[in-house]
Design goal:
Blueprint: E1 2-5, H1 8-12, E2 19-22, E3 27-38, E4 44-54, H2 72-81, H3 86-99
Antiparallel strand pairs: 1-2, 3-4
Length: 100
């Protein structure tokens, strides 16, 4: 399940977020063990490859559905910075910008 933010512009202006639950989105996981090596100390080593296949019949939407979410870490940091000095706010904004 995902939670789609319905009022992005309002939240950016300080409003309480409103969400719509979307889903479920179901994927089938397939695992393959490759490069299997039987070691001299009675252990086995291998590389575990995983692949995921979308299962439309068990999903409420498609893989092309879009949703908007909140970056909780950035929102928390923003709340902490609300009463900080301008220099601290500017440095925090720069760090968030550089972090992507």
């Amino acid at each position: 399940y995902f939670f789609d933010l319905l009022n992005k512009d309002e939240v950016l202006n300080g409003a309480k977020p409103a969400f719509l639950e979307k889903g479920p989105y179901t994927y089938r996981e397939v695992r393959h063990k490759v490069n299997v090596t039987f070691n001299g100390n009675d252990t086995v080593s291998y590389v575990n490859l995983k692949s995921f296949t979308f299962v439309p019949g068990m999903s409420a939407g498609t893989e092309n559905d879009t949703f908007t979410s909140i970056n909780i870490a950035a929102m928390t940091l923003s709340d902490w910075m609300e009463n900080e000095r301008a220099l601290i706010k500017d440095l925090t904004s720069l760090a968030l910008l550089l972090a992507g």
